[in-house]
Design goal:
It comes from Acetobacter indonesiensis. The protein is mostly helical and 274 residues long. The protein is built from eleven helices and no strands. Bound molecules: fe (ii) ion (FE2) (2 copies).
């Protein structure tokens, strides 16, 4: 069962004067990636083909992710009435495809798959929390709070299943760290870059990965404050199996904060927002 419904959001309170047009571009890209989770549910059902409990959880998870896309898309159409969410989603679907016909995880193990899912939910929960804090537009703020709450629940869902498989597959802390950090760096791969391209750039403009990822990241990363990154490092530590709230986490946070904000500035300069 969904924890909230799109029609319950305060749509009548939409205030165009509080819309940041740069954030609208990031929201458009995020909306189609969220909706595309239906493909990941197919992929997860294949990877966990003999685990009906997890398959059911994955199907339920996908329903919530689709709702995130639909709600963000509806907001983006209020902010930019020229833009069409369904058309943009179709363009994204035609442009970006993930391999679905698998019988095992591309991460090498089911534990690895669930670690990767935990990292995705770490990213989304922090992004929507940061976006809710960054925007003064009341509908987007309310929407992002609801989405962030779902994403934290998704993290817990995948984390609990990850522990179930960890007992069988016995993956070392080092391997867990490698998979987790590998998935974090994948955020700069084609998924978000092509989402930016298909939701913000004209159809006759050639795709350029570096330009598109810089455009997306410059805007999305700008919403983050140090407190959001602190939570991210805590969730990564938890997923890897290291003690959160430790001296090591303080050090990881210190390094992550420096890297994150210098990267945001680099992306912003690349696209003329710096
Ligand atoms: Fe989501
Ligand atoms: Fe999620």
């Amino acid at each position: 069962m969904k924890h909230w419904q799109i029609d319950q959001l305060p749509w009548d309170s939409f205030d165009p004067s509080k819309v940041d047009p740069e954030l609208v571009k990031a929201v458009k890209a995020a909306s189609v990636v969220e909706r595309n989770s239906v493909d990941y549910a197919v992929y997860l059902n294949n990877v966990f083909h003999d685990d009906p409990d997890f398959q059911q959880a994955a199907d339920h998870w996908a329903v919530e992710e689709i709702q995130h896309g639909d709600a963000l898309g509806r907001w983006a159409m209020l902010a930019d009435p020229q833009w069409d969410y369904q058309d943009a989603f179709q363009r994204y679907r035609d442009f970006y495809k993930i391999q679905l016909d698998v019988d095992q995880s591309i991460r090498g193990s089911r534990t690895g798959e669930l670690i990767a899912r935990c990292m995705v939910e770490t990213g989304t929960s922090s992004f929507y929390t940061a976006l809710a804090d960054a925007t003064d537009e009341p509908v987007l703020k309310a929407l992002c709070k609801q989405i962030a709450a779902d994403e934290f629940r998704h993290f817990k869902l995948f984390y609990d299943h990850m522990h179930r498989y960890l007992k069988r597959e016995k993956i070392s802390t080092l391997q867990r760290a490698r998979i987790a950090l590998g998935r974090v760096t994948e955020s700069e791969d084609d998924e978000l870059a092509s989402a930016y391209h298909t939701t913000n750039e004209p159809a006759d403009m050639p795709y350029d990965h570096n330009r598109c990822i810089a455009n997306y990241m410059a805007r999305a990363m700008k919403t983050y404050q140090p407190k959001h990154l602190k939570r991210v490092t805590g969730m990564i530590f938890k997923t890897i199996g290291l003690t959160p709230h430790s001296k090591l986490q303080d050090l990881a946070f210190y390094i992550a904060e420096k890297l994150f904000f210098s990267r945001q500035k680099k992306f912003a300069r690349m696209v003329g927002l710096g």
